[in-house]
C-alpha cells in the first residue's frame, strides 16, 4: 500500500469516529496492520499531520489531534468568519442555474444526512455555494477547519440529535439565496455554524464531567 492509501484509510476512520481524538498511532502496530514497512506509515502520518489531523512529536510518536473546548470554539469562530465571507461573495455572483444546482445538492445532502456519508453530503452542499466566490485558498482553509470539526462531531456522536435542525438551516440558507436576501442568508449561515459549535461543546463538556 502507498502512503496515500494508508492515509486515506486512517482519515476515513478519523472522520467516522473510529479513531478518537488523542489516540496513539504506533508506527509498529500500523505497519503490522497494513502489511508494510514503517516508512510508508511514517509518510502517511506526515500527510495527516499536514492536514491538521495528527500531531507528531519528536521522540514521542504520533497521535490523533486532541483539542480543548476553547480551541474548538476558536475553530468555529474562524469558520464563521471565512464561510460567511465566502457566502456573501458567492451570492453576488450567483445565477438562476447556480441556484438550481445548489438546490439539487441540498436535496442529495438531505438524503445522505441519516447515513455514514453525512459529512460528505454536508460539505458538498456548502462547497457548491462557496466555490462560486472564486476564492480557492479560502475554500481550502475552510475545508481544513471543517475536517477537524467533523472529527470531533463524529467522536462525540453529536450528529443524530442535531439532524432536523441542521437540515432546516440548510433550507433557510437556500430560501434566502433564492429571494436575493444575502444578509439574511449570511445570518442563517452564522446561526447554523454557531449552533453546531454550541451543540458540540455541550457534548464535549458533558463527557468530561
Automatic annotation (TrEMBL):
**PROSITE patterns in the record:** HTH_GNTR
Q: One short Pfam family name for this protein?
A: GntR
Q: Could you confirm whether the keyword Ion transport appears in this record? A: no
Q: What is a GO molecular function of this protein?
A: DNA binding
Q: Which UniProt keywords apply?
A: DNA-binding, Transcription, Transcription regulation
- Which Gene3D superfamilies would you find in this protein's record? GntR ligand-binding domain-like (1.20.120.530), Winged helix-like DNA-binding domain superfamily/Winged helix DNA-binding domain (1.10.10.10)
Entry-linked InterPro entries: GntR_C, TF_FadR/GntR_C, Tscrpt_reg_HTH_GntR, WH-like_DNA-bd_sf, WH_DNA-bd_sf
Which spans are transmembrane here? none
Q: What is this protein called?
A: GntR family transcriptional regulator
Amino acid at each position: 500500500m502507498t502512503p496515500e492509501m494508508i492515509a486515506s484509510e486512517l482519515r476515513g476512520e478519523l472522520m467516522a469516529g473510529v479513531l478518537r481524538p488523542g489516540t496513539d498511532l504506533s508506527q509498529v502496530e500500523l505497519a503490522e496492520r497494513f502489511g508494510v514497512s514503517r516508512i510508508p506509515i511514517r509518510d502517511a502520518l506526515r500527510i495527516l499531520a499536514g492536514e491538521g489531523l495528527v500531531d507528531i512529536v519528536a521522540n514521542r510518536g504520533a497521535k490523533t489531534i486532541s483539542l480543548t473546548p476553547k480551541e474548538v470554539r476558536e475553530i468555529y469562530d474562524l469558520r464563521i468568519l471565512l464561510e460567511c465571507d465566502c457566502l456573501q461573495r458567492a451570492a453576488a455572483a450567483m445565477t438562476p442555474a447556480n441556484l438550481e444546482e445548489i438546490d439539487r445538492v441540498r436535496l442529495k445532502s438531505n438524503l445522505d444526512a441519516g447515513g455514514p456519508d453525512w459529512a460528505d453530503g454536508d460539505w458538498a452542499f456548502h462547497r457548491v455555494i462557496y466555490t462560486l466566490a472564486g476564492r480557492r485558498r479560502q475554500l481550502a482553509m475552510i475545508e481544513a477547519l471543517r475536517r477537524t470539526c467533523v472529527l470531533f462531531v463524529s467522536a462525540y456522536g453529536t450528529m443524530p440529535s442535531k439532524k432536523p435542525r441542521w437540515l432546516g438551516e440548510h433550507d433557510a440558507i437556500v430560501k434566502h439565496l433564492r429571494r436575493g436576501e444575502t444578509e439574511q442568508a449570511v445570518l442563517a449561515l452564522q446561526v447554523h455554524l454557531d449552533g453546531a459549535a454550541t451543540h458540540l461543546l455541550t457534548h464535549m463538556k458533558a463527557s468530561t464531567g
